[in-house]
Structures are given as C-alpha cells and as structure tokens.
Amino acid sequence: MKLNIYISIIIIFLISRSLGEIWTNCGPNEKFKITSVSIVPDPPVKGKLVTITGSGDLGESVTGGEVQILVKYGLIILIKETKDLCTFPGLPFTCPINKGTYSQTVNFTIPESAPNGKYTGHVSINDQNSTEIACIDVTLTL
C-alpha cells in the first residue's frame, strides 16, 4: 500500500502541469516533458478508486539519481523521504533510463478516513549529476 502511495505521488506530481491550477511546475527547466495525462475522477474523491495515467518524454538518458518527496497536511509532515531513482520499486524503468517515451498507470484509493483540509506536496527528481529533471508542487483540498 505504501509503495502505491509513493508511485501515485510521483506520477501525480510529474503530470501535474497538465491537470490545472492545483498543480504547478517548480523547476526552471524540465528534462522530462509530459505529453499526456488522465485522472479519473477529476478531482479525486475520498473512498473512490482513482486512476492516473501519464506519459512523457525524457530528453536525455539518466544513469542515476534521487527522488525527494515531501507531503504535508497543513503543517504536519506526512511523508519526507529521499529515494534512489534507480531502485524505486514500481516505476516503469530501470537505470540506465534511456532517452525516450514512458507511460504509467496507477490505481489507488484515497482513504475515507483522510481528514478534510489542505494537503501540499513537493517532488524533486535529480539525475546522477544532481541536476533537476523535474520539480512539481501540488496543493489539494479534500
């Protein structure tokens, strides 16, 4: 379950520019360009299955890197972790990640017990040279 949450967070943040005002790109230049995205239902609803499908193009090969994830409910930190990009389970690639197009679909349910309120998140993905590949901020109110 925790793995699906991590994968969902990464995909949500990577596809965020396509989804509207809730999602913003926080990076100066993206090496990973989103080409298509769908989220059902949009917006996500507590207790309902959420399906997110995203596709994008990686402009140059990556041999390593890190994923930094921060998710907060108000001022409370829910997730604050740094993961190795190459060993992050469930992602649709392994290192080296070749230049090209990638697609992923993730299904998850927002628990009914999730408290109403403001959730914020930040995901930054860096390559083997600590150069940012993607950076996404999200704000969602349940």
Automatic annotation (TrEMBL):
<dbReference type="InterPro" id="IPR039670">
    <property type="entry name" value="NPC2-like"/>
</dbReference>
<dbReference type="Pfam" id="PF02221">
    <property type="entry name" value="E1_DerP2_DerF2"/>
</dbReference>
<dbReference type="GO" id="GO:0015918">
    <property type="term" value="P:sterol transport"/>
</dbReference>
<keyword id="KW-0445">Lipid transport</keyword>
<keyword id="KW-0732">Signal</keyword>
<dbReference type="InterPro" id="IPR003172">
    <property type="entry name" value="ML_dom"/>
</dbReference>
<dbReference type="GO" id="GO:0032934">
    <property type="term" value="F:sterol binding"/>
</dbReference>
<protein>
    <recommendedName>
        <fullName>MD-2-related lipid-recognition domain-containing protein</fullName>
    </recommendedName>
</protein>
<comment type="similarity">
    <text>Belongs to the NPC2 family.</text>
</comment>
<feature type="signal peptide">
    <location>
        <begin position="1"/>
        <end position="20"/>
    </location>
</feature>
<comment type="function">
    <text>Catalyzes the intermembrane transfer of phosphatidylglycerol and phosphatidylinositol.</text>
</comment>
<feature type="domain" description="MD-2-related lipid-recognition">
    <location>
        <begin position="23"/>
        <end position="140"/>
    </location>
</feature>
<dbReference type="InterPro" id="IPR014756">
    <property type="entry name" value="Ig_E-set"/>
</dbReference>
<keyword id="KW-0813">Transport</keyword>
<comment type="subunit">
    <text>Monomer.</text>
</comment>
<dbReference type="InterPro" id="IPR036846">
    <property type="entry name" value="GM2-AP_sf"/>
</dbReference>
